[in-house]
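Below is how a single chain appears once it has passed through the pipeline. First comes the sequence as given, then the structure the pipeline wrote out for it. We keep one example in the README because the format questions we get most often are answered faster by looking than by reading.
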Amino acid sequence: MRASRHGMKWMVFAAMLFCAGTAQAQPQRIVSLNLCADQYLLALAEPEQIAALTPHAADPGISFLSEKARAHPAVHSAAEAVMEFKPDLVLASRFRDSETKTMLRRFGIRVEEISRAEIIDDMIAQTRRIAALIGQPQNGAALIAALAGMTEPPAAAHRPTALAYERRGYISGSGTIVAEMLRYAGAANHAENLGRSAVSRITLEELVLNRPDFLILDTPRGTPRDVGSEVLHHPVLTRLFRDDQFIHMPSALAVCGGPSFPAAVETLRRALGHS
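Resulting structure:
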């Protein structure tokens, strides 16, 4: 009888280990609630693993891998909508959709949060983590190698200054993805030279008085798309900058780090004449 009880204990223990291992098995139905998580899934996951992405994933204006995203369903961040896809893993932002994440966890759905990765070391760490979460370390290794292999251009006596000028006059200072892109592209971030950290706004008057060597816009110059983008097409900019001082870099390259980062740096290097 004692032996039988001992055997039962081992059977229960073995079952617990099996369940624990199964819970961490390669996810087969992954849902993303975050645009940057969309990019990592599209770059690292096998297509059949992706159950749904955010509605933004298929928008070429802000999604680097929008073409691949069109092959997958879109889901809004309501818990009920997410659960319809029967996910075994949900990737979400650490700072948004708190109620949805709480509800999903209450129903036993695994939710993992990601933060923004602004510098290349954080992008590498985030790539490694997400690749492990989705059971695709070999796919993660390729992106990690691309990121880890990037080097800054040789130091020059004078680095050209560049300013990423966005709708409503926003600029990206120190500690941002744009700052990291410019550093690896071989340019000095003019926003940092102005003492700006993170994201802030600059007036047109300030820009006139503190002109960079290059102005980076997310759309070709021409007709504004909306009221917020009018400042990007102000006539004074044409008088301040020559045609070869404007750089076009789509927002989709700079919204998230990771998969789009090498392409963004290469775009800037070509425009700056460093390739």
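The longest strand covers residues 89-93.

See the next section for the split statistics.
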